[in-house]
Design brief:
Low-confidence stretches: none
Shape: globular
CATH superfamily of one domain: Vaccinia Virus protein VP39
Strand order of the largest sheet: 3-2-1-4-5-7-6
Order of helices and strands: HHHEHEHEEHEHHEHHHE
Largest sheet: 7 strands, mixed
CATH topology of one domain: Rossmann fold
């Protein structure tokens, strides 16, 4: 696809390519637990929404599932294909938005998303599409953020937003971490349960965290790139100062509150 036709969101998320895999590395505990919650079986058809560089897709493929990963960002899809080349069966990656999945009804035995579908511009449409492409009785597994306003994730995005001119998302990704919102959004389509858990990032120092995020995480990379040269060092200083309180003496330990959602498609 000609990059000039991409949405700003697709350009932002896709610009870091394979470097985004470092962000998934830092979330690998919860990504792994979400794949466990789905428990892919050999030969099952599994859809991974907002696949990024395909970390969850590869884990499901290693269980023998036939995985399709979708993402809005061609840069992510190219990275996922390169990083998944050795998987058997090899996942298939396609460009698609969560609100408009290019698949027939009841195409999949399982649908999962690890911190991906939560960024859908129209959450209601995304939920309806997950239900449509999942067969009756099929399984759903999601990893979402469950942070409160004083938690790490909320403060992290507030820090980035304070340095960015980008508009806030049309819908808050934090809604997906609220049990009352999930009950209302999934009502009549899924039976589900959810569980809070902490996903912990262990890192050597603040400079390492900065490098991983400025090179691998689209919102931080885009914010840094849009700043005048004279302000970039100040952004890095603020970023590292934000993470300094998590120093333990042997490195950083950063707890982040997440929610793992596990459910089944009702009907049929």
């Amino acid at each position: 696809m000609d990059s000039r036709t991409l949405s700003p969101e697709a350009r932002m998320w896709g610009q870091t390519g394979t470097a985004y895999d470092g962000i998934s590395f830092g979330l690998s505990d919860t990504i792994g637990h979400t794949v466990q919650a789905l428990w892919p079986r050999p030969g099952e058809r599994v859809l991974d929404i907002g696949t990024g560089t395909g970390w969850a897709a590869r884990l499901a493929a290693l269980r023998g599932a036939r995985v399709t990963g979708v993402d809005i960002a061609p840069g992510m899809l190219s990275a996922a294909e390169a990083l998944s080349a050795g998987c058997e069966p090899q996942p298939v990656f396609r460009e698609a938005a969560a609100e408009a999945l290019p698949f027939e009804n009841a195409s999949f035995d399982g649908v999962m998303s690890t911190y991906g579908v939560i960024f859908a511009a129209d959450p209601g449409a995304a939920v309806a599409e997950m239900a449509r492409v999942l067969r009756p009785g099929g399984r759903l597994a999601l990893a979402t953020w469950a942070d409160d306003p004083d938690g790490y994730i909320a403060r992290f995005f507030a820090l980035v937003g304070a340095w960015s001119d980008a508009p806030p998302p049309a819908s808050s990704p934090f809604d997906w971490g609220r049990p009352d919102w999930l009950r209302a959004a999934l009502a009549g389509l899924f039976e589900f349960e959810s569980r809070e858990q902490v996903t912990t990032l262990y890192a050597p120092d603040t400079a390492t965290v900065w490098h991983e995020y400025v090179s691998g995480f689209g919102p931080v990379a885009a914010t840094h790139g849009a700043l005048p040269e004279e302000r970039r060092a100040a952004f890095r200083d603020a970023f590292e100062a934000f993470h300094a309180p998590y120093e333990t003496g042997t490195g950083l330990v950063i707890p982040r509150l997440a929610r793992v959602v596990r459910g089944r498609r009702t009907g049929g």
